[in-house]
Specification:
Elements lengths: L2 E2 L20 H14 L37 H4 L9 E3 L10 H10 L1 H27 L6 H16 L7 E3 L4 E4 L2 E3 L17 E9 L2 E9 L6 H17 L6 H12 L3 E4 L2 E4 L1 E2 L3 E6 L9 E3 L14 E9 L6 E2 L5 E4 L11 H13 L5 E2 H6 L6 H9 L3 E4 L2 E2 L6 E10 L4 E3 L7
Antiparallel strand pairs: 1-11, 2-20, 3-6, 4-6, 5-18, 6-7, 8-9, 10-13, 11-12, 11-13, 13-19, 14-18, 15-16, 15-17, 19-20
């Protein structure tokens, strides 16, 4: 989910060398005859010493590993009964400071159950994200309504996450389905009739949270290959940002590397060639428990910010590009909201707004939500009260972020954790 200012690839092949015993034809025939005599019907039996036949031994059925369905409906705990979820892509840390030895760092990780639990929750969220987006990428087609796409993704996330409450596990924030010149923060409100077209460039940005640990990952979905250079630029830029991130790395250095990669691309379109620009007022960010924007920003241009990334932090490395001015503004009907963690109710007078605040706090806490989510939990005629909470700075609204009308924008995003011994790209998959 975008933050705006107002501002080992281990490809070890497993060599299987099965040994094959060669038998003479006569020995094979003899062995077959003996088997027939012992067990005519193919079941194992034992001869009774007094001439009878003992009870047949039932063959044990081998337990088949449970597989995911299409659409995804099988809870992840059933696919991973050990409750240990797949590790992300491991990359070396980019740091020049040797504060502790590698062995000391490994010992810290081994001995910390708290560290394991928080990373394991993130890995579960990442695996859910991979499985859901894999299905979405195959299923999304021109002619589908945006509401249909959003519900497909969010419904699958909820089923795989197996949360008994919204805050326990499920969607990390509303599914962003921003089209063309809209870079971020658009999801359909109730009654929206927007339909996906062949020529659209859609940013699919959705989150998964487990016990408040949020995976924030996004991709750009297109149908027309003419947009391939645009998609390639932002994908390469995100991978550059992931590569440059590390403990004690200054965020401006990440931004400088991202910008250099992104702006080396251009898009030939309709007889013109468009330079591809970074959207300079959109950023990646760190992620805190139940808080999608944790306080640190990761720019996608060299803005001189000397803030350093720190050990143990979780970051969403996201990059945005545009064929327009490379700068977005708030514009259009709001769909995204989140409770302000530091809100005060001192000026709140309306009983309806107080009741809505109570429901938001109980259901979502500080997790972002949208109007569709309020519909799902049974809220009706809430818009006046919701706007009252926004005016009182109790709830923050996130309007759509728009570049130049008619321009094209694209996005890719990964979540990573800076472990003591390595950098783990949690949301990495075979697709991106």
């Amino acid at each position: 989910m975008a933050e705006s200012f107002p501002e080992s690839e281990a490809n070890a092949e497993k060599m299987s060398s099965p040994s094959s015993a060669v038998l003479e034809d006569s020995n094979v025939d003899k062995l077959a005859d003996e088997v027939k005599e012992m067990n005519v019907d193919g079941n194992n039996t034992e001869a009774d010493p007094e001439g009878g036949e003992k009870k047949k031994k039932k063959k044990k059925k081998s337990k088949k590993k449970k597989k995911q369905t299409e659409p995804p409906t099988v809870g992840l705990s059933k696919l991973f009964p050990s409750l240990k979820y797949p590790e992300g892509e491991i990359q070396p840390l980019n740091t020049n400071l040797k504060r502790t030895t590698d062995e000391e760092k490994r010992a810290i990780e081994r001995d910390s159950s708290e560290h394991f639990n928080f990373v394991n929750d993130l890995r579960k969220g990442a695996e859910i994200h991979r499985q859901v987006r894999q299905y979405a990428q195959k299923t999304i087609k021109p002619g589908m309504s945006m509401t249909e796409i959003a519900e497909l993704i969010e419904g699958s996330v909820q089923k795989l996450a197996e949360g008994t409450t919204w805050k326990e596990a499920g969607t990390g924030f509303p599914t962003g389905l921003s089209l063309n010149d809209c870079a971020a923060h658009w999801t359909p409100n109730a009654g929206d009739k927007t339909v996906l077209k062949y020529e659209d460039v859609m940013k699919v940005d959705f989150g998964v949270q487990v016990n408040g640990r949020i995976i924030d990952s996004a991709f750009t979905h297109t149908f027309d290959p003419v947009y391939d250079p645009l998609v390639a630029a932002v994908r390469a830029a995100t991978n550059t940002g992931v590569r440059e991130a590390g403990i004690d790395v200054r965020v401006c250095d990440v931004g400088a590397a991202v910008q250099e990669t992104m702006e080396s691309y251009e898009l030939p379109l309709n007889g013109k060639t468009y330079p591809i620009k970074c959207i300079r007022n959109l950023n990646g960010h760190n992620i805190a428990p139940y808080v999608i924007h944790g306080g640190k920003s990761v720019p996608i241009v060299d803005n001189g910010d000397q803030t350093k990334m720190e050990e143990g932090e979780v970051f969403a490395i996201e990059t945005f590009c545009s064929t327009g001015r490379g700068y977005v503004v708030n514009q259009g009907e709001v769909s995204h909201y989140a409770l302000n963690p530091d809100y005060s109710t001192a000026g709140l007078r309306t009983p309806g707004a107080k009741n809505l605040l109570k429901k938001i706090k109980e259901t979502f806490g500080t997790l972002p939500f949208c109007r569709r989510y309020l519909d799902q939990i049974g809220e009706e005629k809430y818009l006046f009260n919701l706007n009252t909470l926004v005016r009182n700075d109790i709830v923050q609204d996130y309007p759509p972020l728009m570049d130049t009308p008619g321009s094209l924008t694209a996005q890719f995003e990964h979540t990573l954790v800076l472990r003591p011994t390595c950098k783990e790209v949690l949301s990495r998959g075979e697709d991106y």
